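Lecture notes, part 5. Sequence design as translation. It can be helpful to think of inverse folding as translation between two languages: the language of shapes and the language of residues. The source text, in structure tokens, appears below.
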């Protein structure tokens, strides 16, 4: 592979100037990229011209500069597969500008523009791809169908980055974080017995079943302030159930005392 050391200093200087111009003001439908360490290989992305079978395609090509450039023309190759009379199956480009019509005063800008124009107006008389050249002369519709097929398969441009993708992703992340925070709060409240969910219609009947018709139990349940639960009417079932448990615990010692008294009476007899 050639490097900048193989090119004369004055040629390197001229190429650097021209490449800068191509970068700052590129030709229509052409974007140039270059390796600063090796000016002998120039890459370019060419947009398929509108109204041609190559429309909506993006074709990558390269120019190879020899050690005696610009006295000898560069060699051009398409790296993207394309069905075209003047482009061989290996990608080699056949155009007079790069052959007999070459002039050392012609710059890279002129060469790239000529190559793109070749997509607009092929020259089947000097075809490197004989099938494409013959098809173009005999049946243009069939040629155009083949060219569009190649373009759709091999020259699809990379999808562009959506400007709204970041904001959409951020919004989705914020919604997920809010949902997670609400879920954590609900779980904490449920663990502490102060959940914010309203009681089901069966809650009062459950409480009354546990309490029965005991007036003391009803009085104890009615005297519990609703503000202790944070939401009116919430948590009454749990408190009533606790009171019933306490009442049941007090009955156990009483029954035990009665049994002990009966045992003592039997001993006396």
């Amino acid at each position: 592979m050639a490097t900048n050391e193989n090119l004369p200093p004055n040629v390197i200087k001229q190429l650097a100037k021209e490449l800068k111009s191509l970068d700052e003001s590129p030709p229509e439908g052409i974007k140039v990229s270059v390796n600063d360490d090796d000016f002998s290989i120039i890459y370019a992305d060419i947009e398929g011209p509108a109204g041609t079978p190559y429309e909506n395609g993006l074709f990558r090509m390269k120019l190879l500069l020899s050690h005696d450039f610009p006295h000898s023309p560069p060699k051009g190759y398409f790296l993207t597969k394309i069905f075209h009379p003047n482009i061989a199956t290996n990608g080699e480009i056949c155009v007079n500008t790069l052959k007999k019509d070459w002039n050392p005063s012609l710059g890279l800008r002129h060469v790239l523009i000529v190559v793109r124009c070749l997509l607009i107006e092929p020259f089947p008389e000097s075809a490197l791809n004989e099938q494409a050249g013959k098809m173009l002369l005999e049946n243009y519709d069939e040629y155009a169908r083949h060219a569009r097929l190649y373009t759709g398969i091999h020259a699809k441009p990379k999808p562009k980055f959506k400007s709204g993708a970041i904001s959409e992703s951020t919004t989705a992340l914020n919604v997920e974080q809010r949902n997670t925070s609400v879920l954590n709060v609900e779980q904490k409240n449920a663990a502490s017995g102060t959940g914010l969910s309203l009681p089901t219609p069966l809650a009062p009947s459950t409480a009354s079943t546990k309490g029965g018709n005991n007036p003391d139990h009803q009085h104890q349940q009615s005297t519990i302030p609703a503000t202790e639960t944070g939401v009116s009417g919430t948590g009454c079932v749990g408190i009533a159930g606790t009171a019933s448990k306490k009442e049941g615990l007090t009955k156990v010692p009483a029954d035990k005392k009665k049994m002990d008294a009966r045992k003592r009476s039997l001993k006396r007899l």
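The translated text above is only one of many valid answers, since several sequences can fold into similar shapes. Helices lie at 9-24, 108-120, 130-138, 140-154, 165-192, 203-211, 215-222, 236-268.
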